[in-house]
Structure to design on (1272 residues):
């Protein structure tokens, strides 16, 4: 296979990221390559060894995945073309024959720990937790005998020759993770009417009202924010940029005008793509098909009518 | 002369409006026709009997001239192509031979009265004031013997065979009146870089934050307001439209985008023209040549650069 | 009678102002004194010769009564304690025996003219209009034979020995005038739950966003504006103060906090009173009893609860 | 020693957190107890076993420490009384006798990795990185021979019997971490004039402009934001609360009014304390003593004067 048919993802095999990737129809015809880290998965795309990378960007319990946010904000530009929502429930994987009462040590990715903490306190109060590099890596360490049990996706059991002793473990209801498929810059995904647009905005240093003005660029065009996350710029404490998702597509006039407003008034803006919104429900369905409820006066037709009117005014025909 | 070379103005002869009109270079080659009222002056333009009409729109002491504001806001559309600022100082006009001590009755336009009230109280405390239809009409009534003295522009003395007994009377320092030259809709006046744009905006009925949103359409594009005046819509108490002047020209991108924003989100907008700003000083000079101090990110070049960037984003070349 | 029982009003007798004044229950036990002008009516109160003055402040067709707005904004402070809404319909008053076809000249206050213009054009297209100092004064001049007919309130007919030839004339539907009863500063009228608060706010000279900030002081506390009117400060073209009415009473916490916000951030604020709202309907009823629909979090109870919470936070008991 | 003199911190011994804790003068007279995690350190305070806990809250390179943000936002309330800024520079710790060329494996906390990535790529391009549970834990594993070198604070060398082979390693200039000292709710730290106030605000679910309104509660009172961080509420994707720091102290009127505004209009607000600002410079000094530049009209004196004026208005003495 060529690099054009290769997709990388945050590995190892058996992670939730792989499970998310396999929900994409085209995954069946792609070479799926696990990578050791988010930067590694994305760098393979930047370097041309892969066509795209699937990486987690946000978890409904743990929040933004900073490695992904920061990788997309800096370095050689990448763009997002798809998102996948995956409900997160853990299975407790053990070597065949292990009973709940046999378990003295458990492992899993540090991010998994707070999502199973209550379950663990109730069911295995005396088990000692040690973190592993990934949920799948934890499964491997269980197979090797280092730990008695690992929290991981149920789908990882087969890969590592383990058994799911308990399934559907999750402290929070509706826990889910959002993954994005990132590629090299090209035309954005086609507009569907139920889209999401991602960007990173840097604010001027010494301007206390700058964040308010950023939000007003969206608000005055009736564009709703879906997510805003501050990230340090690396230039010292108190210096932030903002990772922002808004409803709508760059091809929507209201979104385009808001983006241009940011571009004009902020020191730096990085466009990260417009792509179909995955469903917001707990079933992780992609393509909920429900567009935003637009404020009056903000449809494309309204923008076109206003531009026509402006042209008529300028010609003395209004 | 044909109607194309005819300018009407708020008469009669000898008013400040005529004096303002004569400051326009082209006045020398036009037929200047006094009309009995602002509506009459403007209706002559609407009806094609005149090319343009000069009418007062705002006085620095008395405020907006509501007849003009309302005529421009309703009825067959008109547009403003020029403005003239005229310092306002009154002369006390009397029949030859009249002394200050002879004066028992004085007259003048009702608008003149508050501008000379203090002077009158100090110099002619016992004189009885009666309003006349215009300052010039007051002069006529003095000539006819109905009153002893009239407040009017010094320039009206000759027209009515009177003498200026006292000149340069004005309670307020820097009193001046702004006049506008209105014509039928056509291309706006050329952009000079120091322009003013006038419009009338109707707000939705039942929306408490609507005025705030109107102002934000300007603010978010860095367009400064110069004047805002509420006027009743005639649909009952509490229903208003807003007569607004902002800095800049409809051909300025920031102004154009703000106007389109209003057009999209307000029930009705009437564009009244973009035209060179007359000086704000007390000398009534036209064309102060000083453009607004633009907020960073709001020049035409900034708008063009942002549009280029948006296009590149849409093409995957950002 | 003493000055304490004397009310002045904008005269002469037979004006709409007198009719409005007579709708107040206490008018029956007061000496009602017509004055020649709004300033005269208010100065009598300032000087202690009268307890209060009723003057028009706003007409639903003609807009704000600038003489009243400016008198309340400047000079010795006055406060508003009541408002009266009066529907405005004109009668055509003639000397007994006059027929419509006899009428060659008509008169009335300049403010009446635009309100009957259409009727006049349709019914008496050839009649010549001349303005008089007041509608009642026009009636007097008809009785004296100077004009054939006067537009005035039907109630003025008896006073001037005239007959109402046509009644209920008004071009605009729902035309009404709002009058205010002004007295010397004292405690505001009691809160009714359906109140109006009036103030005048001066903005800093050179601050383009100042009007937006003024509105935000109201908006952030959920206080709706009912009226905003710019008035020149008299310091030169382009310098304005704002006459503002908002819903609510100074004793309402949200209103009080908004007023303090303005006081802190604007160069000058003049409080003109809180008083019961008269009905907005065409029947001129006072006391519609309908308070504003409050935004969540802006009732007095919400303010008290928040203050309690703040105190607990400061004490470490939150 | 009693629990009143016991401070917990994010352990183990030799972490940057311990180094930060030792910058506090009172640390000399307290029992300092390392804990295995941020939740454990804070729970000891909640449970009464310790008086306070020092935990990292924000790193100028890595951003907010989500474990700390989430622990402070939920569960039994805690409050912040102090902050400490510590410049972050790593030393490469090795067993005595190890040379740079001997190093095949390196370890450190996952958070350290991006802060030394460039250095590692340049100096030890072939060394394999494996994460450890903490920097200090990595040092321990080096002593035990599992890895060849660990990135940690230079101060950890002695604790673990290692040698600092290279010091002052940090990819980013001015890297520093902010730590907070959290205790059970009590009166906030005394106002110094250069303070910081922390809170967590939940927004209403379905209100697109809610974040804008949150910011306006601060802006309209002239309170500058210093940090804003969105965190998932755990109620599903797209539901966030905001961890916010603003300049000023709860005892400052402008801050108090902003907090009350949030309390009134947001579903939930948790006050996390007001405390002296540590310096923002790279030297990690505490108490920079520089208060915020206040917007005109927002000092306590301005608030008091406005409250006096309001009282006078309500008494008719304005």
């Amino acid at each position: 296979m060529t690099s054009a048919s290769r997709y990388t993802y945050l590995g190892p095999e058996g992670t939730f990221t792989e499970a998310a990737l396999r929900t994409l129809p085209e995954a069946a015809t792609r070479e799926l390559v696990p990578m050791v880290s988010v930067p590694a998965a994305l760098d393979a795309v930047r370097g041309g060894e892969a066509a795209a990378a699937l990486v987690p960007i946000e978890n409904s319990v743990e929040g933004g995945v900073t490695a992904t946010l920061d990788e997309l904000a800096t370095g050689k530009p990448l763009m997002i073309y798809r998102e996948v929502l995956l409900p997160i429930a853990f299975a407790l994987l053990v070597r065949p024959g292990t009973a709940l009462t046999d378990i003295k040590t458990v492992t899993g990715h540090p991010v998994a720990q707070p999502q199973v903490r209550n379950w663990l306190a109730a069911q295995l109060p005396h088990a000692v937790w040690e973190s592993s590099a990934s949920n799948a890596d934890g499964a491997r360490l269980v197979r090797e005998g280092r730990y008695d049990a690992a929290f991981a996706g149920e789908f990882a059991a087969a890969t590592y020759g383990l058994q799911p002793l308990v399934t559907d473990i999750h402290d929070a209801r509706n826990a889910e993770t959002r993954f994005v498929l990132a590629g090299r810059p090209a035309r954005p995904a086609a507009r569907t009417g139920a889209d999401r647009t991602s960007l990173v905005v840097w604010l001027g240093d010494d301007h206390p009202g700058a964040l308010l003005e950023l939000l007003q660029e969206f608000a005055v065009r009736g564009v709703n924010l879906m997510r805003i996350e501050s990230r340090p710029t690396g230039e010292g404490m108190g210096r932030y940029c903002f990772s922002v998702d808004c409803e709508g597509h760059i091809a929507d006039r209201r979104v385009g005008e808001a983006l241009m407003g940011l571009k004009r008034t902020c020191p730096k803006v990085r466009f990260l793509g417009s792509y179909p919104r995955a469903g917001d429900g707990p079933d992780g369905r992609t393509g909920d098909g429900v567009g935003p409820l637009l404020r009056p006066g903000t449809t494309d037709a309204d923008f076109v009518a206003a531009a026509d009117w402006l042209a008529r005014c300028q010609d003395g025909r209004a």
Residues 280-289 of chain B have pLDDT under 50 and may be disordered. Residues 90-169 of chain B form a domain with the D-Maltodextrin-Binding Protein; domain 2 fold (CATH 3.40.190.10). The first strand of chain B starts at residue 6 and ends at 10. Chain B touches chain C through 46 residues (CB under 8 Å).
